[in-house]
Amino acid sequence: MSGKRRRSHGEGSVFKYRDGFAAVLEVGWGEGKRSRKWVYGKTEREVLGKLADLRRRQEQGQNLAAAPRTVGEWLDEWLRMKERDGTRPSTLQGYRKLIENHVRPALGRLALDKLTPTVIRRLLAEKTDSGLSATTVRHIHGLIRNSLGDAEREELVHRNAAKSVRPPAMRQVERRALGVDEAKRLLDVLKGHRLEALYVCALTVGLRRGELLGLAWSDIDFDAGTLTVRQTVQRADGRLQLVAPKTERSRRTVPVPAQTVALFRAHRRQQAADRLAVGERWQDHGLVFPSKVGTPMDPDHIDRTWHKIRAAAGLDWLRLHDLRHACATFLLVSGASPRTVMKVLGHSQIGLTMNTYAHVLPEIERAAVDEAAKHLFG
């Protein structure tokens, strides 16, 4: 470095440097030693502007002494942090997929503290224009926002640039609802099937696929006619794992219809026969719906079996998850309050229940008004 050091109106140390100017700002301690930031420019005004920007970022709480990171390096560190914090393996797997497929290729080499709302907005627009679903684009936005939130708390950035970026709006997709006659046809097809109890439980109790596969015999109270959701089956790193439900609301005890309880009893007798048939190969995990040797059942097997069942019932449009929606719809139409349905399904917020099943609310309101009129007019 050459040139004479001088100050400009108390703005900081400015140097004549080669064919331009340079400035220096002490930013604290980093990695055990005093840290300085240098800025360069063709004019003194340009350098003073950069110096003022550094001071502003420092005042806003950004740790300028921290070692510089790229977005890709921070995301790798962030994933390790999330893993140490006990984030579910399936959630981590989803994060990695979004990072590798969408975020790292576009932003990985960019300096973390140079990430701006404009850059993030352009990425989301590109993903939307490429035909990616609004749901996936919103997941990308959420991942970036959450990771930058942690970077802000670590004082690696002075603000969360994703907060001011709006993700694409979700379009409400109207799905066909399972009617009572269709449900009865489905039940007729299921009679005698090895997994009849599983699919009937999905329809009458509204359990998710992972909750059904994680259900243990100790979770069923046959006398009280209830079951408790304590664990789910998820695939992570190529292995099936039993994990705790994601939220406190998902950990729930719900009533089970007598007809479904009877199917559980029959299923337990069938499982006892299966266990005798395989002998020492049986690995007891205490599950209600295990594989043929007692281990957690592959969710893909449930899906493949479901495709055959719905086709036999003439309901090719019906997804397995639609049984959960059908359960909620039948409960609401039968007079159950939205809060009761929220508890049965394990929703985290009443708004989620109301928004998801808004299509049946007019029917419920009509029934309530008619019932009130009966009392008034006899």
Automatic annotation (TrEMBL):
<protein>
    <submittedName>
        <fullName>Integrase</fullName>
    </submittedName>
</protein>
<dbReference type="Pfam" id="PF00589">
    <property type="entry name" value="Phage_integrase"/>
</dbReference>
<keyword id="KW-0233">DNA recombination</keyword>
<keyword id="KW-0229">DNA integration</keyword>
<dbReference type="GO" id="GO:0006310">
    <property type="term" value="P:DNA recombination"/>
</dbReference>
<dbReference type="InterPro" id="IPR050090">
    <property type="entry name" value="Tyrosine_recombinase_XerCD"/>
</dbReference>
<dbReference type="InterPro" id="IPR044068">
    <property type="entry name" value="CB"/>
</dbReference>
<dbReference type="GO" id="GO:0003677">
    <property type="term" value="F:DNA binding"/>
</dbReference>
<dbReference type="Pfam" id="PF14659">
    <property type="entry name" value="Phage_int_SAM_3"/>
</dbReference>
<dbReference type="InterPro" id="IPR013762">
    <property type="entry name" value="Integrase-like_cat_sf"/>
</dbReference>
<dbReference type="InterPro" id="IPR011010">
    <property type="entry name" value="DNA_brk_join_enz"/>
</dbReference>
<feature type="domain" description="Tyr recombinase">
    <location>
        <begin position="173"/>
        <end position="370"/>
    </location>
</feature>
<keyword id="KW-0238">DNA-binding</keyword>
<feature type="domain" description="Core-binding (CB)">
    <location>
        <begin position="69"/>
        <end position="152"/>
    </location>
</feature>
<dbReference type="InterPro" id="IPR010998">
    <property type="entry name" value="Integrase_recombinase_N"/>
</dbReference>
<dbReference type="InterPro" id="IPR002104">
    <property type="entry name" value="Integrase_catalytic"/>
</dbReference>
<dbReference type="GO" id="GO:0015074">
    <property type="term" value="P:DNA integration"/>
</dbReference>
<dbReference type="InterPro" id="IPR004107">
    <property type="entry name" value="Integrase_SAM-like_N"/>
</dbReference>
